[in-house]
Write a structure and sequence with these properties.
245 residues, Alpha-Beta Plaits, 20% helix
């Protein structure tokens, strides 16, 4: 198996898993449906090509939260595409100044094809919504071998912004949260994780469908390139001033 790692960073991101009607929320990290949609767009897959989507949806997904960002709220208006009538005012939530490392695990040939597509995408990528373009290159990295998804997310350098890394300069290593898609049968071997309805079944505009999947959370330690070296503290001798008296 091979692993494709992507950098997801931008001024705004929005990864909805349960958006309904006039309230469009965002998860705290990229969803599988959002990242699979990004990869499908890079390949030039049509929205109603369910068979090609199924191949991408079978990839195992994971994400590392390098810089959680700040949740913000916006209000938007829209018009119905058929009648041009004004629709109700909607609430939309975003993550500002967030950085993530997302990864998918699958067969080598497919992973290599995805990496090539991300470097020269058929359609421009966006971070959850079309109004959220990437602020940095996606910087695709491919890992071949037996390391797997978990190791791929652990080995990647910390991708947070310099100012954020400097804010944590007292720590040589920082602890980051990783969200991993459960393997088939994981429920019997590990405690039941969280469930998200972000397993894509169809992106067809008039009948989008998503299934539930199980996600396990863990933490990993990564090196902080902006860590300040610790200064040696001189030994304290409370009776030193009495010497020679």
């Amino acid at each position: 198996m091979s692993v494709l790692v992507l950098q997801l960073a931008g001024p705004l991101q929005s990864w909805g898993a349960s958006a309904r009607f006039a309230r469009r929320g965002t998860e705290n990290a990229p969803t599988k449906s959002g990242v699979v949609g990004l990869l499908a767009a890079a390949l030039g897959v049509d929205r109603d090509a369910d068979q090609q989507l199924a191949e991408l949806a079978a990839l195992r997904f994971g994400v590392r939260i390098d810089q959680p960002g700040t949740r913000i709220r916006d209000f938007q208006t829209a018009h119905h595409p058929d009648t041009d009538e004004a629709m109700p005012l909607s609430e939309r939530f975003y993550l500002a100044d967030a950085v993530f490392v997302a990864a998918v695990e699958g067969e080598e040939a497919l992973v290599d094809r995805l990496a090539a597509a991300v470097r020269a995408p058929a359609y421009l990528p966006y971070l959850g919504r079309r109004s959220c373009p990437p602020g940095r290159p996606l910087d695709p990295v491919v890992h071949h071998g037996e390391a797997g998804l978990e190791q791929g997310l652990t080995d990647e350098p910390w991708r947070a912004a310099d100012w954020y890394q400097k804010r944590h300069s007292r720590h040589e290593r920082v602890e980051l949260t990783v969200l991993l898609e459960a393997r088939t049968g994981d429920g019997a071997a590990k405690p039941l994780g969280d469930t998200l309805r972000d397993q894509p079944l169809s992106f067809a505009p008039r009948h989008r469908r998503y299934a539930l999947r199980t996600v396990h959370s863990r933490t990993v330690l990564v090196t902080n390139p902006h860590a300040r070296p610790r200064q040696a503290v001189p030994a304290h001798n409370p009776t030193g001033h009495l010497e020679g008296v």
